[in-house]
Protein 1
Amino acid sequence: MQKMESEQIFRSGFVSIIGNPNAGKSTLMNALVGEKLAIVTPKAQTTRHRIIGISTGENYQLVFSDTPGVMKPKYKLHDKMLKSVGVAIADADLILLLSDIQENFPEQALFTLFKTTKIPVFLILNKADLSSKEQITLRREELEEEIKPEQTFIISALKKTGLTELLTAIINRMPEGPAYYDADQLTDKPERFFVSEIIREQIFLQFEEEIPYGTEVSILEYKDMGDRVHIEAEIHTERLQHKGMLIGKQGAAIRNLGTASRKNIEAWLGKPVFLQLYVRVAEKWKDNQRYLKGFGYDNI
Ligand SMILES: Nc1nc2c(ncn2[C@@H]2O[C@H](COP(=O)(O)OP(=O)(O)OP(=O)(O)O)[C@@H](O)[C@H]2O)c(=O)[nH]1
Ligand SMILES: [Mg+2]
């Protein structure tokens, strides 16, 4: 009888995924939610906004937050990114501190964020598929000593190993509580946000060096006509020279970018899309409060 009662408990809570750039945070959130919400690229500092992913089961609802990688801020943009990590930590019932076993740059900036928090931490060692037992043990000892996590998990977010065990432990660690969102809701941001992220992902994948880091995407027009969607987006870049490279010879680069973006947006929305891209120069936008506000960095 008692057993039956305990089975009825509904658990819910906020789980924030924190870590260095490129640790695999977005890959992990997508895998845990079972849907590609956050963009993933091989380049560091891909994620710029906190992104929520909701996973609802019969007895639980987990509200994950994927966050930008923690690094030393160089621009106002980075200050805002870091602030969103701070908010995600403060809001959390549980923190998943994700560490890439392969990386050996220190996680010092991260540790300072944890010094004052009493929120429980699970240490997640990621990219086990690329790592030897010795590497894993060494990393584990180093980080457990520094962070003193409640539990440690060794996973591959990419290959989806160790995730069932992790998910069960997360659910069990949640307090008893209500569902905060409808069972079929996956995230909190509108579709146009994800469209701009898909275009940004393609810029990260198709262009090298400074271009992705100096680029932002905003949606000028988003018209859902029922059977298809009409989208016009603007790519803001820091320099005139980069604008030229984004457009390419006789518009070849922007055409490729447009085609790849459109295909991915169509897959995400599940209907045909008309996509028009424009490129404009927005000098020093990364340090310009007005631009940053326009790009949504004030609504953390
Ligand atoms: N081999 C391997 N690669 C992984 C794993 N998890 C993530 N990656 C790769 O690592 C790279 C970075 O992944 P992301 O999920 O974008 O990392 P992130 O922590 O969100 O990065 P930022 O948003 O830049 O902070 C991508 O190329 C992923 O495919 C893993 O378990 N194994
Ligand atoms: Mg990311």
Note: Residues 252-269 form the longest helix (18 residues).
Protein 2
Amino acid sequence: MAVGRSDPRYPSLITPWNRRFQGNPQNVHIVQSAQQIAEVLSDAVGAKKRISVRSGGHCFENFTSSPDIQELIDVSQMSDVYYDPKRRAFAVESGATLGQVYNTLVKGWAVTIPGGICPGVGAGGHIAGGGYGFLSRRYGLAADYLYAVEVVIVDKSGRSRIVVATREEGDPNRDLWWAHTGGGGGNFGVVTRYWLRSPGTDSRDPAELLPRVPATMINRTITINWDQLNRASFSKFLRNYCTWFEQNSAPDSRNANLWGGFFAFHQSAGPLGFVVGVDSGVPGAQSLLDAHCEAVMSGVGVQPVADTTDSAPYLDERNWQIEPYARSKDKAANLRRGFSDRQIAAIYRGLTDPEPTNPGACFAMAGYGGKINAVAPGATATADRDSVLRVYITGGRWSSPDEDAKYIKWIREFYRDIYAETGGVPVPNAINAGSYINYPDADLADPAWNKSGTSWAELYYKSNYPRLQRIKKRYDPGNVFRHALSIVPR
Ligand SMILES: Cc1cc2nc3c(=O)[nH]c(=O)nc-3n(C[C@H](O)[C@H](O)[C@H](O)COP(=O)(O)OP(=O)(O)OC[C@H]3O[C@@H](n4cnc5c(N)ncnc54)[C@H](O)[C@@H]3O)c2cc1C
């Protein structure tokens, strides 16, 4: 069904999570099947129209909403999640949100995937980009569970075709499967379905084909106020946090059961602290949490203003983060080990900058490593298999376009300062390890902000980029599927 500009549904369909971007396509196609998508694609390509596909709409950048997109395919009504006995795997239609995926897997079979923490994110973009969340140190990435993917592609002559690609060694389309384990959405074709199954598992019992869901999660949160800290104690706090992850992120570490998140809002706006969580069924769960908290607070010399422990059933909303649509600018990076002293000084400078900024402006880190790092960098398209933390920085959330310039300025300058020694971006070295394509940042492709000489593609894909380019050339030779950071066919 094509929805045009005068249709009352149109504004809802073209407004993505990041409200800074709003597309203006002639039509939004609400599709129900792979066949329908093939028809829409053939017509659009035949008419030389620029197309894009949207699932959950949670992209940080304008990949589905740039002004030159003329036909937008919306897969959100293709959202079934079910067990497929033929492939002995769970099928997830690409329009399903992560909330729908978790709900169905847990209620039907007591299993789950180690995906993202925001229930509104769409499987369409998330799984193809890697996907991680609070079970990832324990179980790996969402994409590590990808068994097969169905994609509608467009060939050289503009004809569309439905292809199923699996991770089976003899599959002639195995490369297309590989590209969807971290290559990122919007690059190869329209994904209609993912099939998920744990690698190396071949049980006839669906309840054994994905990780078993934790019954409850225990989370401990420690909060500090900025006025308790000076530069030295902030540095100690941040250093301790990173050191703990450096020392406890081997794939077989008991502490890979723990997930963790560090948050430091801008001084003018909010507090700082960290949260650590674990499946309550892990032996010694509480003592693992407590040992982590003790190590992070050791020698910082402040008493937390709040120290809370909460136990919540897996599906309980306290474990998840619901983020309303807003204007934002976000940046990310991977860390192989703790920041240098100079970088910590830059983080302190940016967060204590006397100029007040958006109340949501925040420097955050999430625990990485563990089972994620049990996979070789080339085994999937996600090359980042030796980091221990992922950095996420946001300029905040706001509603008026008039505020864009000042909040974006703050985050750009802050990030540039942290990575000043490597041209303003996290060029892979002993500490930094590039960035994450599911947290895209178009500034990495802008010479004004990336002066490193390392391309945006190397920052996101490292040594996997040439293979992704070859796969792109084979499956999307006309570069029909493209956006600000899409893979260039070669
Ligand atoms: C509030 C918020 C919280 C988040 N939390 C996490 C988290 O915990 N962990 C994590 O790993 N990531 C997280 N992310 C990032 C998220 O994984 C990515 O933004 C993801 O790409 C979003 O997918 P989507 O389908 O919702 O987005 P969309 O904007 O619909 O799509 C994103 C990209 O994928 C493409 N795409 C979408 N559907 C298809 C399809 N069917 N076929 C081919 N290409 C497609 C689009 O064209 C676009 O290029 C978060 C993002 C936000 C905004």
Note: Residues 231-247 form the longest helix (17 residues).
Protein 3
Amino acid sequence: MPPTFTFTTRAKNSLSRFSLRQEDCCLRAELASFLHMKGSIQMASGRIALTVITENPAVARRLFSLFKSLYGLNTEIFFRQKTRLKKNNVYLVQVRGEERVRYILKNLGRLDPQGHLLMGVDKKLFRRRCCKKAFLRGAFLAGGYLSDPGSTYHLELVVDYEEYARTLVKLLQDFGLKAKVHRRKKSYVAYIKGSDAIADFLQLIGAHEALLGFENTRVVKDMRNRINRLVNFETANLNKTVDAALQQLEDIKVIQATIGLERLPAGIRPLAKLRLAYPEASLKELGAMLNPPLSKSGVNHRFRKLRQIVAKLVP
Ligand SMILES: [Zn+2]
């Protein structure tokens, strides 16, 4: 079941404004993560281009800024409208020219010494904790989905390669977050469940606005659950009281029809008469009407005695 996108879009929009005044190591980790998830290299008639695709214009802007901050490049952004084949509008952020593309790939640890493209993730990218967070931020911006906390608590990072999904899970585990991988058609999904873990993740990647929205919804939901539980509890109690009163009335009617109320022990007789007169009174109210008054548990005890007498009469 695909999660709803509203909350995701809002989270990405605000996260796209996350400060770019970070150390280069972190900016590199974020961009590298993005390229792993949504990057591709095109070669046409000897010309090379590196393209990153996103459906979110705010995210496209952030990509532009990352290339600018790290490499002083003004990348080109293209807009491609949805067609019958492509379901969504997409933005393409593109770097052209072999020299530039090679420089960036090398800088992000994607080329081996011979200049061949590496598929795996260069672990050097996130030796530091700050970079691990940045890497996860990039992954969320590129392929993250967060379900609306009003319904369920589910966060996922969708990637094309299993190895990459495992890398993300490992990173999440480094921060004490339980994550798992499962396969969905042609993709792999690293996912987190549970509201606490998701809140921790949002905090970790710096999605503070999303976290705030998430917490608000969570509070409202929890409150609603608590009220529902309370109402159910009270209703259950009320039902129990009504059931008990009906049972008492029935017992008294059996006595009337068999031995007669006058044959009841002196302690029970007045109580039985009161119950007949006040079928809806609570045990406490009945006890208060007795002379001398009796506590709720005392009344309860006598009704239990009555129950036993009836049980002997009607086997
Ligand atoms: Zn760093």
Note: The chain has a mean pLDDT of 89.
